[in-house]
Amino acid sequence: MSKVAVVQKSPVVLNRDATIARAVDLLDQAASQGAEMVVFTEAFIPGYPAWIWRLRPGGDWGTTEALHKRLLENAVDLESNQLDPLYQAARKHQLTVVCGMHERDHGCSRATLYNTVATIGPDGLLMNRHRKLMPTNPERMVWGAGDASGLRVVDTPVGRIGTLICWESYMPLSRYSLYAQGIDIYIAPTYDSGEDWLGSMRHIAREAGCWVINSGTLLHASDMPDDLEARATLYPDADEWINGGDSAIIAPGGELVAGPLRNEEGILYAEIDIERAAMARRTLDVVGHYSRPDIFTLLVNANAYAPISFSEQ
Fold this sequence. Notes:
Layout: E1 2-8, H1 16-32, E2 37-39, H2 61-74, H3 84-93, E3 96-104, E4 113-120, E5 126-131, E6 154-156, E7 159-163, H4 172-179, E8 185-190, H5 195-208, E9 211-216, E10 218-220, H6 231-234, E11 241-250, E12 256-262, E13 266-272, H7 275-280
Parallel strand pairs: 1-2, 2-3, 7-8, 8-9
Antiparallel strand pairs: 1-13, 3-4, 4-5, 6-7, 9-11, 10-11, 11-12
Helix pairs in contact: 1-3
């Protein structure tokens, strides 16, 4: 049995370093309760850009540019030492950490942002970087599209884990590519919430025969910085829950074992038995005895791509 935790707490919106410091405090708290893996939500560092769902693509051009500038300034460059506090906390507590963030491209333009989830091992090293394959609707004004080089399941002390971000979980082939890598724990950092979304997460637990950790986004109007551009127009109701979270931990087969946690901060914990995943596939194993590879095949291009390459003669 392993103890896992999913954090449902607001970030310090548009402040990378303060959000990382908050994450370290939360790791300390979860470790004190015996957690071996801790999960944070989509774009936790420095916060999901919820305003994109309220801005007009043309009419609010100036506001969009001002907010994007702040996102660029507070995004994470994974080639830098900006995540060192998280790496050190993971090593200190022997934790596996899964954390969503705005990632700033380092290799080419140094100006494109990606919706990224980083998986950090208990040795404090980066195990995997998954960039969201397809940003959803107005998210395309913020993030570029990722490739499949991070569409991987990795071995950790708590089991084999993989991550899809928000509506990537509505992409059947993306899900299947994780199932086919022997996933034990399917991690879904997300901005979506509500009964329909939770129903999808429970379906995945049944379909894949694995544990599902739904890591929801909690945002209240009071979390928005006082100096946020167009704050009064975008968030006129000071008491509004912009997003209620709905974090949950779901067992193979679809049983809710923790949560959902709605409109409140907290850390959900659950003891999980990885062997339940294997047993759940006795009757339905969609990449094993219940598959038909003689009829259906799937090819995943897992290469990392750059827009240019240089050759020296």
